[in-house]
Amino acid sequence: MRYASKSGSSFAREVSVRAFLSHSSADKDFVDRVAENLRPGSYELDATTFDAGLVNSDAIRVALGRSDLFCLFLSQASIRSAYVEFETMLGIEFLARGSISRFLAICLDDSAFASASENVKFFNIVRKSLDPEAAARLIQGQLISASSKAQSFAHPFLGREEELKALDNQVSDHGRPPIKGIYLSGNAGAGRRSLAAKFYENHFPHVGRVFPQVSISQYDGPEELYRGILAELRPTITATELRIRMTSFNVANPDEQARMTAQLLNSLLPSNEAAILLDEGGMLTDSGMFSPELTKLIDGLEAYPHPPVTFISGRMIPYRHRVTRTDVAFLAITSLGWDATLRLTSTLLKRNRIEFDVEALEQLASLSEGHPYNIYRIVDEILDKGIKIFLADPADFIDWKHRQSSEYFSRIKIEEVESSVLTLLKNIPELDFDTICQALSVSASALAENLQRLVLLHVLESDGDRFRISPALRVAVERDPRVKMPAQLQADATATVARSLSVRLEEGTAPVSLVDSAVLATVEGGGVLTELAAAFLLPSHFVWLAKLRYDQRQWKESIRFGLGALEGEARLSTNGLVAACRFLCLAAARIGADEVFDVAIAKLHLRASDDWARSNVYYLEGFRQRMRGRLPAAQDLFQKAYDFHHGNVSAMRELAAIALARGHLEAAEGLAREARSYARTNAYLVDMLLTVLIRKRTAGTGTSEIEDLFAVLETVGEESGRSFYTTRRAEYEHLWGDNKKAAILIDQAAAKTPMIFEVRRLQAEIYLKAGNRSRADQAIQAMEKMMESREMYDRRWNYRLFLETKSHYLVEVGQYSEAKDLFSDPAYFTNEERERAIKDIEMAQAYSAKRRR
Fold this sequence. Notes:
- InterPro entries: P-loop_NTPase, TIR_dom, Toll_tir_struct_dom_sf, TPR-like_helical_dom_sf.
- Keywords: Receptor.
- This is Toll/interleukin-1 receptor domain-containing protein.
- It holds the Pfam family TIR_2.
- The chain is globular and about 115 Å long.
- α30 runs parallel beside α32 (about 610-625).
- The protein has five domains: about 20-150, Rossmann fold; about 160-330, 3-Layer(aba) Sandwich (Rossmann fold); about 340-400; about 610-715, Tetratricopeptide repeat domain (Serine Threonine Protein Phosphatase 5, Tetratricopeptide repeat, Alpha Horseshoe), CATH 1.25.40; about 725-853, Serine Threonine Protein Phosphatase 5, Tetratricopeptide repeat (Alpha Horseshoe), CATH 1.25.40.10.
- The protein is α/β, with parallel strands linked by helices.
- It contains 44 helices and 13 strands.
- The longest helix is centred in the C-terminal third of the chain and has 22 residues, at about 830-850.
- The protein has a five-stranded parallel beta sheet with strand order 2-1-3-4-5, sandwiched between helices. A five-stranded parallel beta sheet has the order 7-8-9-6-10.
């Protein structure tokens, strides 16, 4: 099956995956009913799919070779079955060498687990007996995940000789202590996990190919880290057992907690395994060094017979911090070299029997920019379109490559069920197939088809039968207006999730990795905390919800959850506490909740132990002044933030915006250029620099850079209903071209984005120049409503610009005294600025009087 957007973009193709259903003859009736609820061709049933001419043992091997998921049905009968034991051992062997990607055991009676072998107990076991329909849903969820993994499982490993050598040199350096872990940074999809696997294959061939993976979010403290590793390494642990382990962990002191967490990872060494810790914002501090929690964890790791962990992150630790951590090997992974890119592209094309010549190969390699994930994507598109059609018009791929988030997602047609799924996962980060099915009250087959599509489109990621929004697309999904549900339906669905997960976790039918989702759903729904939610509720859950509400512009709710996080301040990680205080400050500044702001900023002051932290504190204090429209005071604070750390792009951007608003064009240009160097295609930064250059332009000067920036802004500034390009082109025509054309353009922008202040400001100026005072007055009235509206979170930020624009109007209608009075408040204008403005008004007044004479 293939999916395409309306524009014709092709996406990943569905991969056929199968589940091998292993059972005893006594359980045949139950398993047959399970199979009836699965899609034809998606399973191997050992009673029916063996070739008649094969001996059973050979048939089992062949069937397993065609499968991606080994599903073992455990009962008293199967425990005693020699064939089931044989199939189980084969399944474990196939899993260890990577031939299958999942192992799932389902208990059909209460005593089956107690009698299961230790080999089986290590894997994911559903201990509560299920009905056939529920068992089928569980298998379907696992198969969706397996289908996405099957596409990339056999990718070849080419190139990276220099990178492997760099790691080799660190590991073999006699002057360094034994390596406890390796740290790999680079863009997602650059091959970080593949390189880690190759490194272990070269240096520690005894280590298996399957690496347990644990994500570390930006708010994770010691408890979250321990629980996440425990749930991943011991998937069969029950909620009751987990609660006992966490109780013991909580009474330990911080050093003992770090030792307990390290011991979990060290427990992988005897079984010849190593884990991957994936950074999702919580691995490093703002200054780029390991967080205090991770530092203590590494101290407790062992190094023999191999490093038990690989750290994977999107950013590299600065050199000054790396040299103090000599027991970790560091490597930044960049794009592939040209030769390696050619080899990988050629290999994948030949493997798929695609004919090509040298010129086509070089074109494809150039388009990939040396990024392995881009190469896989190119091959997928060629399989859908053909190489000639792809090379004739690679616009869709280029479009996807440069804007893999908002625009990519906006071009995907989202069905109603898919919108509901994404709405749930916006608020609750991870859910399993069965819970989603119950919450949305849809059929399992319909849900499976929709989830499969979202996974193949890389909108969702899956692990087992659990699903979450792809990190690369989370912001795009959260902002997309199509992703929504009716308020009552969303409340009901959230309540269903909370109840379902709590019950199933207590029963043991849901994996303990969903504990966080159960807690978040309960808190999110505002219901009474269940015993389970109360036992596992952590301050970091409140930080997550504070961020979520802030991103959704629900400032009061963000404050409520932020204050809830501070109630458990002692249990928050350093990053978690800073994040909670930051969201409190930002939300409080927007609604004028000064008491909340003062409490949060005081805590940040106490934590500001380095230049980066001090920079952030001054930035937040400047943000409060900026939200009040007090630009002179805000500028001083933002300048301090910038002086403490020149890499504070937020402070840099705010300084540029204030300099532009106050007419300091030289300063604005320098800051705008520096800010844009960090994000070349950010619409806000491109627009800011373009605005400066337009206003600095003089008659007869060149416009090449201005036109280049317009070309960028036209691409990135009109997506998702925005009007950057149209507005700025209107200003250019207003100042340097045809004011009539400017009026047409600005009216188009106003129709598209009527509540954007800059659009209305420029509309007033354009119509004043045209002599149309009535239309100018309408624009000013629209601006005034924005200044008065409590719904406009940034209304006071624009107050100074509103006063200046209104003064221009009053001058045009001859109300000079009223125009002068607008500059009287020293909070918005300095004495020098006030005197200059009054002088300009008096000059206009004198000129008008002279004309009348």
